[in-house]
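Before going further, it is useful to explain how the protein records used in this thesis are read. An example of such a record is reproduced below.

***
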Amino acid sequence: MSESVQKQMAALQKRLVVLEKKVSAFESGGPPAKEKVKREPSLYNKFMSSEGSTVRKANPGWNQPQVMKEVARRWNEQKK
């Protein structure tokens, strides 16, 4: 075998070892996942949820970007 082919084979063997370790960790369950803390929605999230459905009902032909623009306009107007 030529030298370049030998180098490629060595690189592939190293990669295979890394992948085998990852598969082994995956099959054994892997590291424990961090438990996520559920936070309360912010005022903005609550506003977007309630106003979004209001705007959708009032304008059934609007697509999502149009609805979001209107809700954002109302949010900015309400902040003043």
Remarks:
- The chain is about 70% helix and 0% strand.
